[in-house]
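Sample entry (236 residues):
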Amino acid sequence: MNNATIQALNNVDHKDLKVITHPGAAYGDAVMLSLVVLPEFRHAQSVYPLVFHKNPQTGEFYPVALFGFSDRENLFLHGDQWAAGYVPLYQQRGPFLIGQNNGQQTVHINVDHPRISKDEGEPLFLELGGHAPLLEKVINLLDTLHHGISMNKAFIEALLKHELIESFSLDVSLNNGQKHQLLGFYTINEDKLNGLDGAALGELSAAYHLEPIYMMLASQAQFSNLLAMKNRQAQA
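Predicted structure, serialized as tokens:
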């Protein structure tokens, strides 16, 4: 992303900007995965498999929701429709991000993002300069993401402390004979989790980390739904 396109959002320079809110490949929705944060695990795990990915530059783990089995494959995206009751917050944020302005955290915008328009979409500001409903939603979304990322880091640190993250691979065989292999992802090591003593479990529970652990494990059931979607796509 070109940093020159990132600007602090304000009701003077950006008063006429609108945001296209419906899904679409042209707007960045043709992706295989999205970052998720702990506050949204309850919603996300009911739709998507939740696993860990590793930043190749830093080696840091982060939780993601999977939308497909290969790069740029989003099995939930059908034209301008997202076939799921919940879309991860990071995917919803579109052209917005949190930045620094005079030492304060403020909403910033990528003015070259494909969702930005002056002709169609939802306005960011009201006629007299106040926040439009979309901008209020964006502010709340970014705040949840900001705090959620901090929560993610504490969660990952706890899992690493107890050696609860392990790599896994998934072999996918479609009804038409095609085969795919999902590599480079990580999950919870159930054997080590079940072997933790009471003190370790108490520590995880006190930090509110047991619930997201079990949500991640429960989300593995969504792999069968993802495979069914892949088979339907292959037959179409």
